Model the fold of this input.
Amino acid sequence: MGATGGGPGARHRRRGRDRPGSGRVSRTGRTLVLAAAVLALAAALLIGVLTGPAGLTVRGVVLDLLDAIPGVRIDSGLTAQQHAILWQIRLPRVVLGAVVGATLALAGAAYQGVFRNPLADPFLLGVSSGAGLGATVAIVSGAALGTAGVPVAAFVGGIVAVAATYSLGRGVGGARSEVVIILAGVAVAAFANAVQTFLQQRNDDTLRQVYHWLLGSLGTDGWTEVAVVLPYVVVAAAVIGLHRRVLDVMAVGDVEAASLGVHPARVRLTLVAAATLGTAAVVSVSGLIGFVGIVVPHAIRLVVGPGHRLLLPLSLLLGAAFLVLADVVARTAMSPAELPIGVVTAAIGAPFFLLVLRRGRGAL
Done:
């Protein structure tokens, strides 16, 4: 058996490679798919920038963006007010939405890969609950931390929650650490939610502010939020991207992955840390925006297969486009009022989640 490479694991991998839609896309096909995703993101960004009462035109926006290139001088035709709206209000919000959506979708794909569960979520290990608790502590403390302290407290809360989850799961999991880590995440999330509920009941005058944060928002103060989260997002995306081939190996199981030279526990810790870093960073400024990490990677997987070489970059590009368009809906559905973006993503994601469960009930 060893000489022919015909063991059960090898047969399983050959079947996976030969199965239609399993991720074996030609180089030309990958190029075309990625180009289409880039165009989709560009269209979403343009729609996001143009949406609103300021009267910006496609020609004016495109020319104004070109005018920002060093050495290029073009009269865009925008007034000074329109120029300020474009660069200080519209673009920061749209770029922040793209960064948040890309990070949540990429983190979702990474979590689903390391835990071999297509329904895993960036908030799986308690990031959302920890961030929510941290934000609640900052909000109810009032002047003690101030408004600027909310993102910091949310970021720290998310990181601490996942660290507690991983330590607990690894400490008691043994050979089944992968499953126990997920169960530990449920326990940590339940504890954080209980503490958060207690704080809200004791400080009911802050309930509106807490719920506004929990339901998500892409409101920005210029480029500050983008500048704050971008370094963390770049690091997280780079680490996850460098492990795209390793994630394909992890799909065959820990035992077979180890026989191929991969250290499953070390890879899992690295990817969980990277995905958590990026997720905690973006939710600290956007609030909790659910379902992006499930909807986008799983929809891509249904179309191009599970291979992470294509799944990860597509998740990044289409996750960005998805959240930018969701924000457009949030801004226009009840104009001039604005829906929390978490409501929009939940309205899209919940039916999709049920559809996935129905389609895959025999396999999940």
